[in-house]
Structures are given as structure tokens and as C-alpha cells.
Write a structure and sequence with these properties.
This protein has about 80 residues and is an alpha+beta fold. Helix content is about 20%, strand content about 35%.
């Protein structure tokens, strides 16, 4: 269901924590962080590392062929 061949496939989500609270699921493909495109795991880690703790983050994902935006708040 992807319209492009890049992003980061989610293969594991802890049952508790910010990702689970935001609704991220195994099989989602992360395509952006705060509107900035994410093409690979290195870009994802970089984007997340540059965001202050406790600040809400908009995560663009593709799930079942449909684009969604989730809001994740990193823990302090």
C-alpha cells in the first residue's frame, strides 16, 4: 500500500511507553517526523534525537495503505 519505496518499517512496539501511547503499531511505516520526510532508520534516529524531551512529535505513518498522523510525546 505504499506509494513510495522509503520510510521505516515498525517491527516492534513495547506494550508501554510513548510509541504505544501514540498508537504506533507493528507493520506501520514511518514516513515523516514533524512534517520532515524520513527515508531510512538513520534519518529517523537523527530526527528523534534532535527533539527535546516532553515535546509532542507528529509522526507520519502509512498503515494498511492509508496515511495517518500520530502524536507521540517523548518521556522526560
Amino acid at each position: 500500500g505504499l506509494t513510495r519505496a522509503h520510510g521505516v518499517l515498525v517491527n516492534k512496539v513495547r506494550t508501554t511507553g510513548p510509541a504505544a501511547d501514540a498508537g504506533l503499531k507493528v507493520g506501520d511505516v514511518i514516513t515523516s517526523i514533524n512534517g520532515i520526510e524520513v527515508r531510512d532508520p538513520v534519518a529517523l534516529h537523527f530526527r528523534m534525537a534532535t527533539i527535546a524531551l516532553g515535546v509532542p512529535v507528529k509522526i507520519g505513518v502509512v498503515r494498511n495503505g492509508k496515511s495517518e498522523t500520530l502524536t507521540l510525546t517523548s518521556q522526560k
